[in-house]
Amino acid sequence: MRRFILEIMLFFAVQIPLVVFLIARFPTLDNEMMAIHIDKQHRAAMLAGGPRVFMVGGSSVAYGYHSEIVEEELGIPAVNLGISGHTGFDFQLSEAEQTARKGDVVVVSIEYLVLGKPQLVNNDFLFATLMCRPQSISFVPLPRLKVLLDGGLPVIRVLIRSAIRGRRNSPLYTRDGFNEYGDFVRMRGQPSQYLPPQPGEPGPVIDDDGRLEAYVDRIDGFIRRCEARGIRVFLMYCPYAPAHFATHSRPIRLIAAALNERFGDRLLCKPEETVFPNAMIADWVYHIGDEAGKIYSRLMAQRVKEKLGAPSR
Questions:
Q1: Distance (Å, rounded) from C-alpha 279 to C-alpha 28?
Q2: What's the pLDDT tens digit per position in 201-222?
Q3: Torsion over CA: 112, 118, 119, 125 (sign)
């Protein structure tokens, strides 16, 4: 631990002056996709005076919810915290845990590729998030922070690349593609661009390395800590395309069995209930379009109401 602290101190001593210079010289992250993290946290803070519902996960959450439907059904403000799976499941849970307060409801998306190989976590996405909102470093688990520090100077790489290219991501994925709730809306109303499963495409992998058990344990710890503070937590399977669902049916069944055994009363649906026709998929396997998003949002909200004992509208 002492060595780790010394590494952190050395890291900041060497890199902060360079980072400050680059931020001042190349302020190009304002419309970076990860800058929407600022807006999501701002909305959460502005609504902190009463109960809120948070949707938590990666891009399936950003694409999947019509937060206005969730608000209308539940009668409380909604905040969509989903951005990208590349930030990592631990970051997403930590953000939700630190942001939610007593009386809030948290709906965590079960995204199968969290158990994929290779894993989705991408250090550049985390660094871009921290460059946009430095205080979010508190959401980065210590083991991941150590990995980031051991990576050399990727934060400077992110800034320089952003300065040279203008944007790290496709122009499709930018801050202004999200609405005030935090929903990604730029693809709404567009024809489906879905592609069936491709050879070598990553998918969930369940073997005997203990990753599924560790995943379930992380969710269990999150639920216990939140509910000890008066925060209700539910789990919602992510949207999925039918061909991908068939291809990954075995690992999905194993994931569902493990979750049902531990969290049956907190699950809002079955995996097959959130499979949508190809024409309703926006582009990637997790990303649903406008009509599917309305169905998915209403399903989630109605199931939450049933769990909370409130009548559905």
A1: 36
A2: 778 888 777 889 999 999 999 9
A3: negative
pLDDT in tens, 100-117: 999 999 999 999 999 886
78-82, 126-130, 241-245: which range is least confident on average? 126-130
d(CA 153, CA 81): 28
Note the pLDDT of residue 26: 46
The residue whose two tokens read 């203008």 is 166
DSSP state of 84: -
| Cα gap 180→92, rounded to integer Å | 19
Cis ω before 51 (30° cut-off from 0): no
pTM for this model (two decimals):
0.86
Q: What span, in angstroms and rounded, lies between the C-alpha atoms of 162 and 90?
A: 26
Surface-to-core class of residue 104, CB atoms within 10 Å of its CB (0-12 exposed, 13-18 middle, 19+ buried):
buried
Residues in the chain: 313
Q: Which helix (H) or strand (E) holds 144?
A: helix 142-150
CA atoms within 13 A on the CB side of 238: 30
Sorted by sequence, the CB contacts under 8 Å of residue 246 that are 6+ apart come out as none
User: What is the DSSP secondary-structure string of 195-234?
Assistant: ----TT---B---SSSHHHHHHHHHHHHHHHHHHTT-EEE
Predicted pLDDT at 196: 86
